[in-house]
Design goal:
single chain, 149 residues, alpha+beta, three-stranded antiparallel β-sheet, two-stranded parallel ribbon
Length: 149
């Protein structure tokens, strides 16, 4: 997402082959500096013959709002892929999870259950009631590969 001073918002991404894409390492394939150098990352050792990947750049048309531009981009991708929104609580409610880099992935008091309860209460006092709390397993709880209490 790029936001220009005059209120223009551009969103760029892969249009397909999402898992085989990277925003780049800050350099082009030949080492020249680049703000955005999309495509397969250097960690992919072999690319199959005839591999192709398409990208899309959209410019928001709804008044310069980043949120509106990202929504338009999402609508474009859904139309292209003949997809629709999923009925998924994690997409429609405020929530808290202990995995995927969440702040309390390794609960400092070694009790992730208590951490989730505290975080839920904290969000409610701030006027953001939790739609879900998700604790996900050993290794994600105490940093030592043990299940949380």
């Amino acid at each position: 997402v790029v936001f220009f001073d005059e209120g223009t918002v551009a969103v760029a991404s892969p249009l397909d082959q999402f898992k085989a894409s990277s925003a780049g390492s800050g350099a082009t394939w030949d080492g020249r500096p680049a703000v955005w150098a999309p495509g397969p990352p250097a960690t992919i050792d072999v690319i199959p013959a005839n591999f192709s990947q398409s990208f899309v750049v959209t410019v928001g048309s709804r008044g310069g709002s980043v949120v509106a531009a990202v929504a338009e981009w999402g609508e474009l991708l859904q139309t292209y892929h003949d997809a629709a929104n999923l009925d998924d609580v994690t997409l429609t409610k405020v929530g808290y999870q202990t995995d995927n880099g969440a702040m309390y992935c390794f609960c400092d008091d070694a009790n992730c259950s208590d951490t989730l309860i505290r975080k839920g209460a904290e969000a409610r006092t701030q006027g953001a009631p939790m739609g879900y709390l998700s604790f996900q397993g050993a290794g994600a709880s105490d940093g030592r590969g043990q299940a949380a209490p």
